Amino acid sequence: MKNSSRTWLERENADFAASIPPGSIVLDAGAGIQPYRPLLAHCTYEAADFELVDKPYAKSTYVCDLSAIPVADERFDAVLFNQVMEHLADPVSVLAELRRVMKPGARALCSAPLFYEEHEQPYDFYRYTQFGWRHLIEMAGFEVERLDWAEGYFGTVAYQLETAAKYLPGRKEAAARGIGGFGTGLMLGAAKRGFRLLANWFYNLDERGRYTAAGYPKNYVVIIRKPL
Fold first, then answer.
1. 45-54 long-range contacts, CB within 8 A, separation 24+
2. Alpha carbons 15 and 209: distance in angstroms, whole number
3. What does the buried/exposed string (b/e) look like for 56-70 if buried means 16 or more CB atoms within 10 Å of the residue's CB?
4. Helix, strand or coil for residue 46?
5. Which H/E stretch holds residue 109?
6. pLDDT class for 32, splitting at 50, 70, 90?
7. Strands 62-63, 76-82: parallel, antiparallel or unpaired by DSSP?
8. What is the pLDDT of residue 188?
9. Is-contact 221 111, C-beta < 8 A?
């Protein structure tokens, strides 16, 4: 199913990458499969990840805990830090380590969920409000340059509908509970099909423009700067 959050994060990372001068040294912290590496062809790209989750990884430059990256102080001109904070038991120590390895004036693009199911267990610890972001970033000695919704509320609704279609019991599971469950099962089966259609519709709406007048995002995207 389409996922407008990925579309918006790709756009955010593309804009951020375009703002980095050619030849800069960039760290992708918690890079996973390194989906944004092609955006940084004009830079020296390095990746760090602990590579402990049972999932695919691209080859990291540094296989390490992000609270102890084996590089000298002030090495990096910019940092990507996408969808990692929720997986950190001690996020402040990692933010402090990123501050150590960034040059004065360097910027980082960060993102993490406010609303998302548990994933990559057992390494899933937190969800972040905009106020939590500001608190942790300022504790780590960064300045907040920009803090926005990653996607609009249509994207959040689409995700809720998608997960309802995925996890609600279907006709057979509900009917197994007895005669009363048969009618419920029929309704749930129809609802699940409808939810899938609606989810795709809302994802399409969200890709066309972020609706932020009400509701809440699925993720926040934050650009931070190390003071000069």
1. 46/76, 52/123, 53/120, 53/123
2. 16
3. ebeebbbebbbbebe
4. strand
5. strand 102-113
6. very high
7. unpaired
8. 87
9. yes
Tens of pLDDT, residues 107-151: 999 999 999 999 999 999 999 999 999 999 999 999 999 999 999
Confidence (pLDDT) at 212? 97
Phi-psi region of 193 (alpha: psi -120 to 50; beta: other; left: phi over 0): alpha
CATH number where 80 lies: 3.40.50.150
Q: For residues 100 and 191, state if they share a domain.
A: no
Separation of alpha carbons 155 and 159, rounded Å: 6
* H/E run at residue 206: helix 179-208
Residues 78 and 119 in one domain: yes
Name the strand (E) or helix (H) holding 36: none
